[in-house]
Amino acid sequence: MGTPLVEILSEMGHSVYVTSRTKKDNKKNIGIHYIRGNALDLDFLRETIQRGWDIIVDFMSYNEQDFRKRYEMLLENTKCYFFLSSARVYADSNEVLITEESPRLLDKAEDAKFLNTTDYSLEKAREENILLDGKKRNFVIIRPYITYNTDRLQLGIYEKEAWLQRALSGKKIVFSREIAKKYTTLTYGYDVAKYISELVVVSDTIKGEIFQIASHYCIKWNDIFNLYLDILEEYMGFRPEVVWIEGVDGYTQRKLFYYQAHYDRMFNRRFSSDKLSEVLNKNLIFTDVKEGLRICLQEFLDMGGHFLNKNWAREGALDKISGDKTQICKIPGFKNKCKYFLFRYIL
C-alpha cells in the first residue's frame, strides 16, 4: 500500500516525505523526498517528526510497549496521524457483514492462552485502545484487510514464498481443505492506497474515527487457489501437485501460524464499506478480485518477480507434510540448516 500511496499523494500535488533504511534519490520534480533512517529507531523518529507535519501515515509495525513510547510524540507533531491497524482485529462475524463497530477478538475471545499472546490481531487492537483512550483526538485508524499486488500474492496463511515458490521449484503445494471452504476478502493494494489518499483530503473532518478499507467482493479461498493453479498450469505446462490437509493444525506447521489460521483464516470475512462511502460521498469502486489476481500473478511470472528470504522452519514443515526434500547444500547458513532439519525430520 505504501508505494502506491506515495505516488498518488504526489500526483495530487502534495509534498511527500518517506523514511527509508536504504539510500534513495529524491524525486523533487514530483514532490517525493526520502529521509534515510530506521523509523523503528526512537532517536531517528524523534528527530524526524519534530519538524512538524500536516499528515503522518504510519505503516510501521510496533509491539505495544514500543507504541506507548511513541504515540504521544507522533500525535504532538502532526495535525492528523493515520494509524494503520488491521481488519484482523475483528472476531468471527458469523457470516454477517463486518462494520467498524463489529466486535474485536481482544474484547470477545475467551481463549486465555490466545489473549496472553502478542498475536498481530491483538497487538493492533491494543494499540488502537491506546489512541482511543488518550486525550488527543487528532488521529484516524485505518483497518485494511488482506491486500495483494504483483509482489504480494497470498494463499490462506501463506505468502507467495510458501506456495508459489514451491510450485515453481517442482514441490507440492500444501493447503487446508477447511480454509479452502471459507470466504475471504482480498483488496488490490492500489485501491486501498487510493482511498487512504482521499481520507487524507478530508482528515480535518474525520479525526478520532475508524475506517476499514476492504473490497465489497468476497470469494472462497478454493476459488482463489484454482485461479492460481490455472495460471500456473498455463505457464509451466503442467498443473502443480497439491497435498490437502484435513483441519488446520497440520497446515499451521507445528504452531508456526496457529493463531492466524484459527482466529482469522478460519472465519468468513465479508466487509461493509458503507462508512467509507458515506464520508467520501461516493460509490466505491474496487478492482475485481479474480481479474486483479490474474493480472498480478501473470505479471510476476512474466517479469521473473522477486521472492523474499525463505522461512526455513516453515519450509521444513511443509516438506515433511508433502514428502518433498531440500538439499542441505541449498540452504544458506548454519542456523537455517538447523531450522529446516528440525522441522523436516524431528518435530
Describe this structure in words.
The protein starts with a helix and ends with a helix. The protein is globular, with a radius of gyration of 21 Å. The relative contact order is 0.13. The model has no long low-confidence stretch (mean pLDDT 94). It folds into two domains: 2-152 and 183-218 and 270-306, Rossmann fold (3-Layer(aba) Sandwich); 309-347, no CATH class. The protein has 347 residues and is an alpha/beta fold. Strands 3-4-5-10 form a four-stranded parallel sheet, sandwiched between helices. Strands 1-2 form a two-stranded parallel ribbon. It has 15 helices and twelve strands. The protein has helices at 2-11, 42-49, 64-76, 105-108, 112-115, 120-132, 164-168, 177-180, 189-201, 221-236, 258-265, 274-280, 289-303, 312-322, 334-346, and strands at residues 16-20, 32-36, 53-58, 78-84, 139-144, 146-148, 173-176, 183-184, 186-188, 209-213, 219-220, 242-245. 41% of the residues lie in helices and 15% in strands.
